[in-house]
Amino acid sequence: MDIRDRKHDHIELTVDGRSAYAVPTGFERIRLVHNALPELSYDGVSTAASLLGRRFRLPVLISSMTGGTARAAGLNEILARFCADNDLPMGLGSQRAMLEKSELEASFAIARQVAPDLFLAANIGGQELTKGWTTDHTRRLIGSVRADAVIVHLNPLQELVQPEGDRDFRGIADGIARLVDDAGVPVVVKETGAGISGAVGLRLADLGVRAVDVAGAGGTSWGKVEAFRRPDGDHRFDDWGIPTVDCIQQNAPLTRRGVELIASGGIRTAEDIAKALALGATFTGIAQPVMAAAVQGGREALDTWLATLERHLRMVLVLTGAAEPAALDRTHLRIF
Ligand SMILES: Cc1cc2nc3c(=O)[nH]c(=O)nc-3n(C[C@H](O)[C@H](O)[C@H](O)COP(=O)(O)O)c2cc1C
Phi, psi (5° rounding) for residue 119? Predict the structure, then answer.
């Protein structure tokens, strides 16, 4: 299958919500504690938060999504302008395609071209780091988009369900360690929705990664996306994975080792963001709702989505008595 068809399928199969997990994130088991005496003003609270040494308007990374086709180039341009104008960090989709076909590089580089100051993260699959990966690949991955960080995605579930996917996951840890040595920018490791356990998080910390993005179950199911693409329609693994709240709880100790913890996978509301931070995450990431807004309504829809999210986050901060996202902790939660 041509990589361009696959990218097209991925957008079509996710934007309408048909590929959402049936298992919940776990946020529904948690309530934020209402503070009737917050002693804060709506305009005085700050929604800003830090990721990898830079401060952003909201604790929200626009997660890695696309590139490699003409349509993806247009979407990357919209997303990059949106993120730059609103001071949000952005991840590019997997750059494997452009490393195989250099003519596809422009569909990723457009993000940097239109937004010179944007915090932009490169993206590559863990498996790629095992197959004859060289320092030249690392240089192109990062240099072509002048990336501020590089995100490695781990996705064994997606690969195994995907008819044309990889079947051999040996050697990825060594590949990550080499990338940490060569990259010259922080290395972040993420899943794509099946989650990162505490044990895997610890191994990643030992490899020297600067941040772990849990991408847990409860949002977009990549087992489900790939099942829709299978000729035999085998949907057995649609709900495989570690729910996002579990992932955050298991990986919260990483922050004591100086590893930043990004919560993602089904983050949909300002309350989800606040709950994730109160559980110990340092930042959050959102993918599907952003792509859906961009595809269905372009820049206007993205602006409306963000304005609502920001207003709600400001309300949540006041109503929990937290002057800024970093002030949220376990005292702001009741877990049922
Ligand atoms: C259209 C689309 C394309 C994606 N492509 C990539 C990718 O190339 N690399 C990657 O690391 N993750 C990719 N993801 C996964 C997201 O970054 C994210 O981890 C996952 O969708 C869970 O977040 P969500 O529930 O907010 O969608 C993609 C997600 C979407 C919706």
Answer: -80, 110
Average confidence (pLDDT) over 292-311: 98
| 293-to-72, 79, 148, 301 alpha-carbon distances in Å | 14, 10, 25, 5
Give me ligand 1 centre to Cα 287, in Å: 6
pLDDT at 163 over 90: no
CA of 322 to the centre of ligand 1 (A): 30
Give the span between the Cα atoms of 299 and 183, in whole angstroms. 32
Q: At what angle do helices 106-114 and 70-86 cross, to 10 degrees?
A: 20
Please state the domain extents for the chain.
3-335
pLDDT in tens, 63-109: 999 999 999 999 999 999 999 999 999 999 999 999 999 999 999 99
CA of 120 to the centre of ligand 1 (A): 15
The answer to whether 21 and 219 have CB atoms below 8 angstroms apart is yes
Residues 246-253 have a mean pLDDT of 98
Identify the CA nearest to 137 among candidates 174, 178, 192: 178
Give start and end residues of each alpha helix (H) in 28-128.
70-86, 96-100, 106-114
CA distance 79 to 219: 20
Q: What is the mean pLDDT of residues 27-36?
A: 98
- Please identify, in words, the CATH class of the domain defined by 3-335: alpha beta
Lining residues, ligand 1, CB within 6 Å: 10-11, 14, 63-66, 93-94, 123, 153, 190, 192-193, 215, 219-220, 264-267, 286-288, 291
Range list of β-strands (E), 201-336: 211-213, 260-264, 283-286, 333-335
Close Cβ partners of 180 (under 8 Å, ≥ 6 residues apart): 187, 207, 208, 209
pLDDT in tens, 304-321: 999 999 999 999 999 999
Rounded mean pLDDT of 27-52? 98
- Cα separation, 317 vs 196, in Å, equals 28
